[in-house]
Amino acid sequence: MAQQKLISINITLGSYQQIVADIISLAKKRYSSYVCVANVHMCIEAYNSKEFANIVNSADIVTADGKPLCVGLKLINGIDQERVAGMDLTPSLLKEAELNNIKVFLYGSTDEVLEKIQKVAKEKYPNLAIVGAISPPFRVLSEAEIANDINTINDSGAGLVLVALGCPKQEKWMYSMKGKIKGVMVGVGGAFPVFAGIQPRAPKWMQDYSLEWLHRLSQDPKRLFKRYFVTNSLFISLLIKEKIRTI
């Protein structure tokens, strides 16, 4: 699929449905691959770290999760790119996995969230096979633990592995697992608690006006205020500089 660089990351171009179809195609083959669902935070993390930029740009697919990235592609490159957000991708991929008899594995988040996801998924997609879930400890895993997780995921037969470790941890994990895990890994970040019904998603009007970050900020201001203030300001500054350069 075609890609377009925006500031620091190469964003995969295409319609929402086409990108979903491409992810499902990888899952059917159990092709060891990974998908980065990129927002402003990820873009700025990649801008500040060449190593992390390489991790993101080595992904098989990089979707424009954040609406500001779509705005940036339009402003700088004149490209109308449809938003492909992790919170939308999660139910779409689960539905397609059910229709295509693709086994699913969940990796990340907490045991409570994982249990609720499986309960909700069973209600919405009764024929979906979620074949396993792992909530890894919040510390560096030993080599034995890493090998055990790889074996557990591969032995489950999963073709689709949804990963929720948060950025940049989940992207680094997927990069390290490429060639080891037999399936497509999709870093969906904060989509798990939303799908599980634990956290509400921003109203559609906020999504449409690139304000979903403001909704998340209101839910966790102490943790997110500095991140959003710094990353959003830098992102806007870099977009303006890039626009001036192209004039």
From TrEMBL:
Q: Alphabetically list the UniProt keywords.
A: Glycosyltransferase, Transferase
Top-rank taxon of the source lineage equals Bacteria
UniProt xrefs under PANTHER family: PTHR34136, UDP-N-ACETYL-D-MANNOSAMINURONIC ACID TRANSFERASE (PTHR34136:SF1)
Q: What is the recorded name of this protein?
A: WecB/TagA/CpsF family glycosyltransferase
Query: Which species is this UniProt entry from?
Result: Arcicella aquatica
